[in-house]
Amino acid sequence: MTSQSPILQISDVSLVFGGVRALSDVSFSVQPGELFSIIGPNGAGKTSMLNCVSGRYTPTMGTVSFKGQDVTGLKPNDRAELGIGRTFQNLALFGHMNVLDNIMVGRHHLLKNNFLNGPLYWLGGAQKEELEHRRFCEDVIDFLEISHIRKATAGTLSYGLRKRVELARAVALRPDLILLDEPMAGMNLEEKEDMARFIIDLNEEWGMTVVMIEHDMGVVMDISNRVMVLDFGRKIAEGLPDEVMANKHVKKAYLGEEDDETDEDEQVA
Protein backbone atom coordinates (compact mmCIF):
# COMPACT_ATOMS: atom_id res chain seq x y z
CA MET A 1 0.00 0.00 0.00
CA THR A 2 1.13 3.55 -0.62
CA SER A 3 1.69 6.11 2.10
CA GLN A 4 -1.41 8.14 1.23
CA SER A 5 -3.96 9.40 3.73
CA PRO A 6 -6.40 6.79 5.08
CA ILE A 7 -9.86 6.69 3.53
CA LEU A 8 -11.20 5.58 6.93
CA GLN A 9 -9.76 6.57 10.31
CA ILE A 10 -11.24 5.18 13.55
CA SER A 11 -9.82 6.91 16.64
CA ASP A 12 -10.40 5.63 20.20
CA VAL A 13 -13.99 4.58 19.52
CA SER A 14 -16.01 3.28 22.46
CA LEU A 15 -19.67 2.27 22.39
CA VAL A 16 -21.76 1.70 25.52
CA PHE A 17 -25.36 0.45 25.68
CA GLY A 18 -26.62 0.99 29.21
CA GLY A 19 -24.03 -0.84 31.28
CA VAL A 20 -22.75 -2.96 28.40
CA ARG A 21 -19.54 -1.85 26.69
CA ALA A 22 -19.72 -3.10 23.10
CA LEU A 23 -16.48 -1.37 22.00
CA SER A 24 -13.56 -0.12 24.06
CA ASP A 25 -11.03 2.39 22.71
CA VAL A 26 -10.73 0.84 19.25
CA SER A 27 -8.47 2.57 16.74
CA PHE A 28 -7.50 1.56 13.21
CA SER A 29 -7.19 3.00 9.73
CA VAL A 30 -7.94 1.71 6.25
CA GLN A 31 -6.01 2.85 3.19
CA PRO A 32 -7.69 3.58 -0.16
CA GLY A 33 -7.87 0.40 -2.20
CA GLU A 34 -7.48 -1.99 0.73
CA LEU A 35 -9.50 -5.09 1.43
CA PHE A 36 -9.60 -4.95 5.23
CA SER A 37 -11.30 -7.67 7.30
CA ILE A 38 -12.56 -7.60 10.88
CA ILE A 39 -12.79 -10.94 12.65
CA GLY A 40 -13.52 -12.16 16.16
CA PRO A 41 -15.81 -14.43 18.19
CA ASN A 42 -19.56 -13.89 18.33
CA GLY A 43 -20.30 -10.81 20.41
CA ALA A 44 -16.83 -9.35 19.87
CA GLY A 45 -18.23 -6.03 18.59
CA LYS A 46 -17.66 -6.48 14.85
CA THR A 47 -21.12 -5.40 13.65
CA SER A 48 -21.18 -2.63 16.26
CA MET A 49 -18.01 -1.27 14.66
CA LEU A 50 -19.54 -1.35 11.17
CA ASN A 51 -22.61 0.40 12.56
CA CYS A 52 -20.39 3.15 13.95
CA VAL A 53 -18.77 3.55 10.53
CA SER A 54 -22.06 3.57 8.61
CA GLY A 55 -23.86 5.87 11.05
CA ARG A 56 -26.43 3.51 12.53
CA TYR A 57 -24.71 3.99 15.88
CA THR A 58 -23.00 7.09 17.25
CA PRO A 59 -19.91 6.25 19.32
CA THR A 60 -20.07 7.07 23.02
CA MET A 61 -16.50 8.32 22.66
CA GLY A 62 -14.02 8.66 19.83
CA THR A 63 -14.23 9.79 16.22
CA VAL A 64 -14.94 8.33 12.77
CA SER A 65 -13.27 10.11 9.84
CA PHE A 66 -13.94 9.39 6.17
CA LYS A 67 -11.69 10.84 3.48
CA GLY A 68 -10.31 13.29 6.05
CA GLN A 69 -13.75 14.50 7.21
CA ASP A 70 -15.09 13.92 10.71
CA VAL A 71 -18.38 12.09 10.10
CA THR A 72 -19.01 10.96 13.68
CA GLY A 73 -22.22 12.95 13.98
CA LEU A 74 -23.56 12.40 10.46
CA LYS A 75 -26.64 10.27 9.75
CA PRO A 76 -26.42 7.15 7.54
CA ASN A 77 -27.95 8.91 4.52
CA ASP A 78 -25.38 11.69 4.73
CA ARG A 79 -22.56 9.17 4.91
CA ALA A 80 -24.01 7.31 1.93
CA GLU A 81 -23.94 10.53 -0.07
CA LEU A 82 -20.26 10.91 0.82
CA GLY A 83 -19.54 7.44 -0.56
CA ILE A 84 -20.09 4.81 2.15
CA GLY A 85 -22.18 1.77 1.19
CA ARG A 86 -22.97 -1.36 3.19
CA THR A 87 -24.69 -4.72 3.34
CA PHE A 88 -26.26 -6.22 6.44
CA GLN A 89 -25.81 -9.47 8.35
CA ASN A 90 -29.58 -9.95 8.19
CA LEU A 91 -31.01 -9.40 4.73
CA ALA A 92 -32.67 -6.00 4.31
CA LEU A 93 -34.24 -6.38 0.88
CA PHE A 94 -37.76 -5.35 -0.09
CA GLY A 95 -39.23 -8.83 -0.52
CA HIS A 96 -42.26 -7.70 -2.54
CA MET A 97 -40.15 -5.81 -5.12
CA ASN A 98 -38.31 -7.34 -8.05
CA VAL A 99 -34.51 -7.55 -8.19
CA LEU A 100 -33.99 -4.57 -10.50
CA ASP A 101 -36.19 -2.30 -8.37
CA ASN A 102 -34.36 -3.37 -5.21
CA ILE A 103 -31.07 -2.44 -6.83
CA MET A 104 -32.48 0.87 -8.10
CA VAL A 105 -33.19 1.78 -4.46
CA GLY A 106 -29.41 1.89 -3.99
CA ARG A 107 -29.25 4.81 -6.45
CA HIS A 108 -31.82 7.04 -4.75
CA HIS A 109 -29.14 9.12 -2.99
CA LEU A 110 -27.85 10.16 -6.40
CA LEU A 111 -31.17 11.42 -7.76
CA LYS A 112 -31.33 15.18 -8.33
CA ASN A 113 -35.09 15.46 -7.83
CA ASN A 114 -36.59 17.09 -4.71
CA PHE A 115 -39.90 18.69 -3.73
CA LEU A 116 -38.80 22.14 -4.99
CA ASN A 117 -37.52 21.30 -8.43
CA GLY A 118 -39.67 18.20 -8.95
CA PRO A 119 -42.22 19.50 -11.51
CA LEU A 120 -39.60 21.31 -13.60
CA TYR A 121 -37.25 18.38 -13.30
CA TRP A 122 -39.79 15.91 -14.58
CA LEU A 123 -40.47 18.19 -17.56
CA GLY A 124 -36.75 18.25 -18.24
CA GLY A 125 -34.15 15.59 -17.62
CA ALA A 126 -35.98 13.11 -15.44
CA GLN A 127 -36.31 10.40 -18.05
CA LYS A 128 -32.69 10.77 -19.13
CA GLU A 129 -31.46 10.56 -15.54
CA GLU A 130 -33.61 7.53 -14.79
CA LEU A 131 -32.26 5.78 -17.88
CA GLU A 132 -28.71 6.52 -16.77
CA HIS A 133 -29.34 5.09 -13.30
CA ARG A 134 -31.10 2.07 -14.76
CA ARG A 135 -28.21 1.49 -17.17
CA PHE A 136 -25.72 1.49 -14.32
CA CYS A 137 -27.90 -0.93 -12.35
CA GLU A 138 -27.96 -3.22 -15.37
CA ASP A 139 -24.15 -3.09 -15.40
CA VAL A 140 -24.14 -4.16 -11.75
CA ILE A 141 -26.56 -6.97 -12.53
CA ASP A 142 -24.32 -8.23 -15.33
CA PHE A 143 -21.23 -7.99 -13.12
CA LEU A 144 -22.83 -10.05 -10.34
CA GLU A 145 -24.25 -12.53 -12.87
CA ILE A 146 -27.88 -12.18 -11.83
CA SER A 147 -29.40 -11.18 -15.19
CA HIS A 148 -31.57 -14.29 -15.16
CA ILE A 149 -33.40 -13.10 -12.02
CA ARG A 150 -33.55 -9.36 -12.73
CA LYS A 151 -37.38 -9.41 -12.87
CA ALA A 152 -37.89 -12.02 -10.15
CA THR A 153 -39.51 -11.02 -6.86
CA ALA A 154 -36.74 -10.75 -4.28
CA GLY A 155 -38.67 -12.61 -1.58
CA THR A 156 -38.94 -15.75 -3.75
CA LEU A 157 -35.18 -16.16 -4.29
CA SER A 158 -32.82 -18.55 -2.56
CA TYR A 159 -30.79 -17.20 0.34
CA GLY A 160 -27.56 -17.13 -1.67
CA LEU A 161 -29.13 -15.14 -4.49
CA ARG A 162 -30.73 -12.70 -2.06
CA LYS A 163 -27.29 -12.07 -0.54
CA ARG A 164 -26.00 -11.32 -4.03
CA VAL A 165 -28.89 -8.93 -4.71
CA GLU A 166 -28.18 -7.10 -1.47
CA LEU A 167 -24.56 -6.71 -2.52
CA ALA A 168 -25.78 -5.38 -5.87
CA ARG A 169 -27.90 -2.75 -4.13
CA ALA A 170 -24.89 -1.58 -2.09
CA VAL A 171 -22.70 -1.51 -5.20
CA ALA A 172 -25.35 0.50 -7.08
CA LEU A 173 -24.44 3.52 -4.98
CA ARG A 174 -20.93 3.20 -6.47
CA PRO A 175 -19.38 3.85 -3.04
CA ASP A 176 -15.73 4.59 -2.41
CA LEU A 177 -15.95 2.44 0.73
CA ILE A 178 -18.20 -0.61 0.98
CA LEU A 179 -18.91 -2.31 4.32
CA LEU A 180 -19.76 -6.00 4.07
CA ASP A 181 -21.31 -7.68 7.11
CA GLU A 182 -20.85 -11.45 6.73
CA PRO A 183 -21.44 -11.50 2.96
CA MET A 184 -20.93 -15.30 2.80
CA ALA A 185 -22.93 -16.39 5.85
CA GLY A 186 -25.24 -19.33 5.11
CA MET A 187 -23.76 -20.00 1.67
CA ASN A 188 -22.54 -23.30 0.27
CA LEU A 189 -18.97 -23.69 -1.03
CA GLU A 190 -19.78 -22.75 -4.62
CA GLU A 191 -21.71 -19.65 -3.56
CA LYS A 192 -18.84 -18.59 -1.28
CA GLU A 193 -16.33 -18.96 -4.10
CA ASP A 194 -18.49 -16.79 -6.36
CA MET A 195 -18.97 -14.15 -3.67
CA ALA A 196 -15.23 -14.05 -2.92
CA ARG A 197 -14.54 -13.52 -6.62
CA PHE A 198 -17.06 -10.67 -6.81
CA ILE A 199 -15.56 -8.97 -3.74
CA ILE A 200 -12.03 -9.21 -5.16
CA ASP A 201 -13.21 -7.76 -8.48
CA LEU A 202 -15.04 -4.89 -6.73
CA ASN A 203 -11.82 -4.11 -4.91
CA GLU A 204 -9.34 -4.53 -7.77
CA GLU A 205 -11.33 -3.68 -10.91
CA TRP A 206 -14.00 -1.31 -9.58
CA GLY A 207 -11.59 0.41 -7.18
CA MET A 208 -13.76 0.06 -4.07
CA THR A 209 -12.14 -0.03 -0.66
CA VAL A 210 -13.66 -2.94 1.28
CA VAL A 211 -14.14 -3.42 5.03
CA MET A 212 -15.53 -6.89 5.62
CA ILE A 213 -16.75 -8.97 8.55
CA GLU A 214 -16.58 -12.68 7.79
CA HIS A 215 -16.43 -15.88 9.86
CA ASP A 216 -14.92 -18.07 7.15
CA MET A 217 -11.26 -17.86 8.12
CA GLY A 218 -10.10 -19.47 4.90
CA VAL A 219 -11.75 -16.75 2.81
CA VAL A 220 -10.54 -13.98 5.11
CA MET A 221 -6.93 -15.12 4.98
CA ASP A 222 -7.03 -15.70 1.22
CA ILE A 223 -8.43 -12.37 0.04
CA SER A 224 -7.64 -9.77 2.75
CA ASN A 225 -4.77 -7.29 2.62
CA ARG A 226 -4.91 -6.77 6.37
CA VAL A 227 -6.94 -8.21 9.25
CA MET A 228 -8.04 -6.79 12.61
CA VAL A 229 -9.24 -8.97 15.48
CA LEU A 230 -11.76 -7.88 18.12
CA ASP A 231 -12.49 -9.72 21.36
CA PHE A 232 -14.99 -8.45 23.93
CA GLY A 233 -15.01 -5.08 22.16
CA ARG A 234 -11.24 -4.59 22.26
CA LYS A 235 -8.69 -4.80 19.47
CA ILE A 236 -6.28 -7.62 20.25
CA ALA A 237 -4.42 -7.85 16.93
CA GLU A 238 -4.00 -6.17 13.56
CA GLY A 239 -1.72 -6.91 10.64
CA LEU A 240 -1.10 -9.10 7.62
CA PRO A 241 -3.17 -12.31 7.53
CA ASP A 242 -0.20 -14.56 8.31
CA GLU A 243 0.84 -12.35 11.22
CA VAL A 244 -2.65 -12.43 12.70
CA MET A 245 -2.94 -16.19 12.32
CA ALA A 246 0.35 -16.62 14.22
CA ASN A 247 -0.68 -14.33 17.09
CA LYS A 248 -1.07 -16.34 20.30
CA HIS A 249 -3.83 -14.07 21.62
CA VAL A 250 -5.83 -14.63 18.43
CA LYS A 251 -5.38 -18.38 18.73
CA LYS A 252 -6.77 -18.26 22.24
CA ALA A 253 -9.64 -15.82 21.65
CA TYR A 254 -10.74 -16.72 18.14
CA LEU A 255 -9.43 -20.16 17.30
CA GLY A 256 -9.86 -21.64 20.77
CA GLU A 257 -6.23 -22.64 21.28
CA GLU A 258 -4.47 -22.59 24.61
CA ASP A 259 -2.45 -19.47 25.40
CA ASP A 260 0.44 -21.28 27.08
CA GLU A 261 2.90 -19.41 29.23
CA THR A 262 6.03 -20.71 27.52
CA ASP A 263 6.92 -20.49 23.85
CA GLU A 264 8.15 -24.09 23.95
CA ASP A 265 4.65 -25.35 24.65
CA GLU A 266 2.94 -23.27 21.94
CA GLN A 267 1.71 -25.24 18.97
CA VAL A 268 0.86 -23.83 15.56
CA ALA A 269 -2.48 -24.94 14.19
Rg (CA only): 20 Å
Shape: globular
Classified in CATH, the superfamily of the largest domain is P-loop containing nucleotide triphosphate hydrolases
Strand order in space, largest sheet: 6-7-8-3-9-10
Low-pLDDT parts are 261-269
Mean pLDDT: 86
**Ends distance:** 29 Å
Name given to the CATH architecture of the largest domain: 3-Layer(aba) Sandwich
InterPro entries: AAA+_ATPase, ABC_AA/LPS_Transport, ABC_transporter-like_ATP-bd, BCA_ABC_TP_C, P-loop_NTPase
Keywords: ATP-binding, Nucleotide-binding, Transport
Pfam families: ABC_tran (PF00005), BCA_ABC_TP_C (PF12399)
GO molecular function, one term: ATP binding
Give a structural overview.
The protein has 269 residues and is α/β, with parallel strands linked by helices. It has two domains: 1-83 and 175-269, Rossmann fold; 97-173, no CATH class. 36% of the residues lie in helices and 22% in strands. The protein is built from ten helices and ten strands. The strands form two sheets. The protein has a six-stranded mixed β-sheet with strand order 6-7-8-3-9-10, with helices on both faces. α5 crosses α6. The longest helix has 18 residues, at 126-143. The two termini are 29 Å apart. Residues 261-269 have low confidence and may be disordered.
Which features would summarize this protein structure in a list?
269 residues, alpha/beta, Rossmann fold, 2 domains, six-stranded mixed sheet, four-stranded antiparallel sheet, 10 strands, 22% strand, globular, disordered C terminus
